[in-house]
Amino acid sequence: MNPFVLVQPRSHAQAAKVMAAGGSYRLPVLKAGGIDVLDHLKEGLLSPDAVVNVRRLGAEGPAVTRLADGSIRIEAGATLAQLASDPILLADATVVAQSAGSAATPAIRNIASAAGNLLQRPRCWYYRHAQFECLKKGGSMCFAVDGENAHHAIFGPGPCHIVHPSNLAPALMVLDGQVHLTGSKRDRIAAADLFHMPDKGILSEHNLEQGEVITHLTLRPRPTSGFHAVKAKQSFDWPSALACVSLRVEEGVIREASVCAGAVAPVPWMLPRVGAALKGAKATDDAAIAAAAELAAEGAKPMRDNGYKVALLVASVRRATLRALGRETPSFREIRP
Ligand SMILES: Cc1cc2nc3c(=O)[nH]c(=O)nc-3n(C[C@H](O)[C@H](O)[C@H](O)COP(=O)(O)OP(=O)(O)OC[C@H]3O[C@@H](n4cnc5c(N)ncnc54)[C@H](O)[C@@H]3O)c2cc1C
């Protein structure tokens, strides 16, 4: 690991100044909890000359607040553990609390931040291995195409086949999340515009510019919302597939539905056809919910070893919908003798 300067800014705006292009450092790297940044340093994937530590910024105030216009504000540095147990989120943005509570391990959730979770880099083992010069590192090929692709994307044309690793990002998508920024002319970007597909820029996954720092997130409340993930190791793994669902239900009928998948495409993958099919269904109509969930598979183009993800996605969408409706079915673990 190369030596670097540790910068301790007093505000996000100060951090943004240090991070800005043409500043005092050649390659400054922003660090919140550091779970992903330290992995990169240790693997030799990043060699910064300055690490700008924003972990403690905003920690003195509440992690989550309700705003006057009814929306909900989450601080950039709020930990996943705080989100998972926050009473405002548990009551009015259940999908966020559930997605945060399902990520990683208790120890990691105590450190990992909301902003860092959104911007963590992909887990593709070729990207993560310093010896594979893949497309994401300026190389000329995606090794997953003819290689080990059990955990890669089932949607999207490539040329890079990563899956988006964040639990929180799809939850933000179904609640019309906004990502608030400092360090540039714009003060926010919609969660829906935060990420891009590989063909729009292969070296990064998001649309933030150098020097833009996330200060907080806002989202609209939706009590009827739910999350479900299927993992190889339920205790700590990244999901093989996950789904986030937000519903507006009136008199027992689903009037609005927004559905987003994670871990199946290079970006959080909206499923508008599923949302449209759920609209008008009775909240107790299991057949209609199951039929809508089947539409999640439309357009999937699995690679050699990841066809299993299609069924996991359909099941995740169905279960997330039932969870949003307060009609959770027992998990595999619960029904085992
Ligand atoms: C064993 C294990 C299992 C895991 N399982 C899951 C899982 O199931 N689901 C899941 O979602 N994640 C999972 N993770 C990933 C983990 O949740 C993320 O690495 C963590 O949330 C990153 O947060 P952080 O605060 O540590 O970010 P950091 O590592 O500090 O930063 C990550 C990225 O975000 C950028 N960043 C951080 N804060 C800001 C800001 N304010 N503005 C702009 N950029 C910023 C950094 O520059 C960096 O690029 C797992 C990790 C491990 C080790």
In words, what does this structure look like?
- β10 and β11 form a beta hairpin.
- The protein has a single domain (62-329), classed as CO dehydrogenase flavoprotein, C-terminal domain (Enolase-like, domain 1, 2-Layer Sandwich), CATH 3.30.390.50.
- By secondary structure, it is of the alpha+beta class.
- The protein is 29% helix and 19% strand.
- The chain is globular.
- It has 14 helices and 12 strands.
- The strands form 3 sheets. A 5-stranded antiparallel β-sheet has the order 4-5-8-6-7. Strands 9-10-11-12 form a 4-stranded antiparallel β-sheet.
- Flavin-adenine dinucleotide is lined by residues 29-37, 54, 76, 103-104, 108, 112-113, 115-117, 119-120, 165-167, 213-214, 236, 238-239.
Unreliably modeled segments: none
The helix content is: 25-40%
The CATH topology is Enolase-like, domain 1
Global morphology: globular
How many separate domains? 1
- Cα radius of gyration in angstroms: 20 Å
Number of β-strand runs: 12
Distance between the termini: 48 Å
The top level CATH class name? Alpha Beta
SSE pattern: EHEHEEEHHHHHHHEEHEEEEEHHHH
Q: What is the architecture at the second tier of CATH?
A: 2-Layer Sandwich
How many H/I helical runs?
A: 14
